[in-house]
Write a structure and sequence with these properties.
By secondary structure, the chain is α/β, with parallel strands linked by helices. The protein has one domain: Alkaline Phosphatase, subunit A. Strands 1, 4, 5, 6, 7, 8, 11, 12 and 15 form a nine-stranded mixed β-sheet that branches. Strands 2-3 form a two-stranded antiparallel ribbon. Strand 13 and strand 14 form a beta hairpin. The chain starts with a helix and ends in a 16-residue tail after the last strand. 46% of the residues are buried.
Length: 482
């Protein structure tokens, strides 16, 4: 019978074998397996070999995610004919037995309700925009407004997860993680993927996994900036530790980690080294980023006075511009509170007031600084709202349920055609009748602007190759400049 020593020797894993091999084919194989993750300089990786796949039109992305599902009928999908249908049940020929949420499936009636807000055409493009969005109305000639988005999910968490990761099931890498994994970062002193969440809005929860790295190395996960205390946790030195002492501590810790990396070949150790070094550099770069004292008064007139208050959507939009100036690859803003199942007129008025000016200001600010041409800005939520009223319909109040069949998203800059409206819905804003755009189509288009072929950016995990768009998705070429 074999001794315990022999069994242990036979049980040595391939990773241990390659990790302990100092020369020859073992070292070569280890390098091939781990690739960029073995970079020990502590800087963000330069991306995968062979990327970008084609010349990019965008260097970076700013995604303004309106969590909760803004109503298309109160924002960009003008349906004047609905006035004549008010109070009538939604025809079965329109609903076609489509799935309902548990919140309205037991309703005896589905009374149609039009928007109580006025619409007008704006710009040379003649885009219809609600009176709730007066600042966005001024920049419509910079926007490609997609009115025909569709999703597979009907409830918030799977719908948000689907937009952020390409899957309704938690655990996949987020879009920003895919982008930084494939393309790396051009900024040495800040993370390649930064997340900003509006403070104090309430609404549906947002979990860290929405900007996580999934099965990709954790160095590609988004770094959430806070509005209270240190912008990033543990950024400040502990009491009694100065900058020089921290440098010596990190040097000693990195030496230990490198020994462990040489021994085991574990990619997460390389990630740990890189993150420690990034945190050290961020002690200087983050305070400079968040110090708005040098911003002129005109900036705050543009974004609104809320931009002076950390954690507001306006302040986060201003920080997004400053992050774009520093070449951060992917910048994700989340603003909650769009889930108006009841009291929609008052609720959506509040949300639009909080986001309209700053969203438009960001586009204008990027343009005047010469950054819009190579920055893709996106605005939109996880789904739209139903044309029928949820709950009791009154003369001045109504609510709307979740609706995945059609809803709006707009894009600007980064190679997108400006002054364009794409897609059409039926008279009830219930079904797409022209140019449908699926979530995976939007994701494929975002990667395309970054120079990435979404079918080729893959990662092998648990025996199969995964990608952001799963096995679906087509680039929306009609939304892009030739």
């Amino acid at each position: 019978m074999s001794s315990l020593t022999d069994i242990e020797r036979l049980a040595t894993t391939r990773r241990q074998f390659f990790g302990r091999a100092a020369t020859g084919i073992g070292a070569a194989a280890l390098g091939a397996l781990l690739g960029k993750d073995l970079q020990a300089a502590g800087t963000e990786p330069l991306g995968l070999a062979g990327l970008p796949h084609h010349p990019p039109t965008a260097k970076r992305v700013i995604y303004l995610f309106m969590s909760g599902g803004p109503s298309q009928m109160e924002t960009f999908d003008h349906k004047p004919a609905l006035t004549g249908y008010r109070g009538q049940d939604l025809p079965e020929s329109i609903r076609k037995g489509q799935r309902l949420t548990g919140m309205t499936s037991t309703q005896l009636r589905f009374p149609v309700v039009e928007s109580q807000f006025a619409f007008a055409q704006h710009g040379q493009s003649g885009a219809w925009v609600s009176e709730l969005l007066p600042h966005t109305a001024k920049i419509v000639d910079e926007l490609c407004i997609i009115k025909s988005m569709q999703t597979d999910a009907i409830n918030h968490d799977p719908a948000v997860t689907f937009f952020q990761t390409g899957s309704q099931i938690a655990g996949r890498p987020s879009m920003g993680a895919w982008a930084t994994y494939g393309l790396g970062s051009e900024c040495e002193d800040l993370p390649g993927f930064v997340v900003l969440v509006t403070r104090g809005t309430g609404g549906q929860p947002l979990y860290d996994r929405l900007w996580g790295s999934g099965f990709l190395p954790t160095r590609y996960q988004g770094v959430k900036f806070r509005s209270v205390g240190d912008p990033v946790l543990y950024l400040s030195n502990p009491p009694g530790i100065d900058h020089q002492q921290r440098r010596r501590y990190l040097d000693a810790l990195n030496a230990i980690n490198r020994m462990a990396l040489d021994e085991s070949g574990e990619p997460e150790i390389a990630t740990r080294i890189a993150q420690y070094e990034m945190a050290y550099r961020m002690q200087t770069s983050v305070p400079d980023l968040t110090d708005l004292s040098a911003e002129p008064e005109e900036t705050f007139r543009l974004y609104g006075e809320d931009a002076r208050t950390p954690g507001t959507f306006a302040a986060n939009c201003l920080l997004a511009r400053r992050l774009a100036e520093r070449d951060v690859r992917f910048i994700q803003l989340y603003h909650r509170g769009w889930d108006q199942h009841n009291n929609l007129p008052s609720g959506i008025t509040k949300q639009c007031k909080a986001t309209d000016q700053a969203s438009a200001a960001l586009v204008m600010d990027l343009k005047r600084r010469g950054l819009l041409d190579d920055t893709l800005v996106i605005w939109g939520g996880e789904f739209g709202r139903t044309v029928y009223c949820q709950g009791r319909l009154t003369d001045d109040d109504y609510g709307r349920d979740h609706h995945p069949r059609c809803f709006p998203v707009w894009m600007a800059g980064g190679g997108v055609k400006p002054g364009m409206q794409l897609g059409e819905t039926d008279d009830y804003s219930y079904n797409v009748v022209a140019d449908p755009v699926h979530v995976h189509d939007l994701q494929a288009t975002i990667l395309h602007t970054l120079g990435v072929d979404h079918t080729k950016l893959t990662y092998r995990f648990q025996g199969r190759a995964f990608r952001l768009t799963d096995v679906h998705g087509n680039v929306v070429k009609s939304a892009l400049k030739a």
